[in-house]
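Ticket #4471: structure export looks truncated?
Reporter: QA, pipeline team
Priority: medium

Steps to reproduce: submit the single chain below to the structure queue and open the exported record.
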Amino acid sequence: MTIKPAIITKSQAAALEALRQLPEYQDPERILDAHRTNPKFWSAQYSDLNDMDDRLLRKALKFGYSTNVRVNRIFIQRAEGPTALTRIKHTAFSWEEARYILKNMTLTAPTEGYDKVDFKILFTNGDVYNGCYSLQQNDEFGGSLLAHVRSFCEFYAGLCYPLPDHIPSQTAYEEMIAESAMAYVKFLDDVLYPSAGLGSIDTSEYQRIMNLPKPLRTNWTNPDRKPESPKFVLVIRKHEEFLFQVLKDDYGHWTFSTRELLDEWIQKRGLTIGTEIRKDVFHINGTFRTLMIPDRKPYLHLPQVAMLMNGSMVRAYKEVTPEGTNFYVVQNYPEAFKFDYNTPSGQWYLKKFFRR
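Actual output as written to the record:
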């Protein structure tokens, strides 16, 4: 039986090779012992080994490694559209198979607006990418999941050329993406580009992104305090698919086609629209978190709401605190609802049994 080498990223391979040059880490067991003791132990040029799976690291040290990252599986499921079709889970084993699945979905996609399609990509190195695709009928000719993920990641990696109309300048763009850009650059260069047989990001681009000025943030110095709450910003965009977009810490996002849907989302989470930062960009006051819990019993006294998560409506327990709003959802979604909440009967069920 032939054991295949471990699949790791280029960044992890470079960090591992640099580490093995040190005299104290010539013995692989020394590396494994240090990693097991503290998976976040590594710093400087070895930091890409932080949080690396222990079994993967052991395999790489024992059987060698490859940086030839590929798609393992892609799970695709409609979150909107004909009720019967939203229950079907599709699996693709390549970018081309995913494109074919989306092409078939366009047969029942709307001619105006779009249907949301949830997807989850598993890569052979263990990385996982979750997202939402906006399905339209004209995607029959040009729809591509790879192009969608690539475009999104390149935007937040600082590799968007030319800039969209709603961003006034290159400086404003760099301020928007500065904090998250390097993570997206590494994901593109280490995982997405290799999985699609694309080239590497130029070294000069790496250097440019590394040198972007990072926005000032206040960090907790008291170890007993919680980390800083996420920040939310509302952007009014001129876009063919949506009008409003809420950004979370510059990289998470929600989109809304009408002001009514935006207001409903904000009210449910205990948020308010704040001051205008620049034209068509506003602060959002308040914060919220969705927390996964193993058991619902300690939370049954809280008001219940319904939330859309990974294409399913699930029961959540809402807690309003001075620091923000918390939503508690039981792990693996055992309290998911399998009804069409877009129909009148589904809306009645939500209004009767859940308080916003």
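Status: closed, not a bug. The export was complete when the record was re-opened. Leaving a note from the reviewer for reference: The mean pLDDT is 81.
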